[in-house]
Amino acid sequence: MGRKVINSIECKRCHNKFDVATEDIEWEHLEDLGECDEDDSLHDYGIWQNAICHHCNEKNNILVKARGKSETDLDKIEVISMEF
Question: Does position 81 have pLDDT exceeding 70, yes or no?
Answer without folding.
Answer: yes
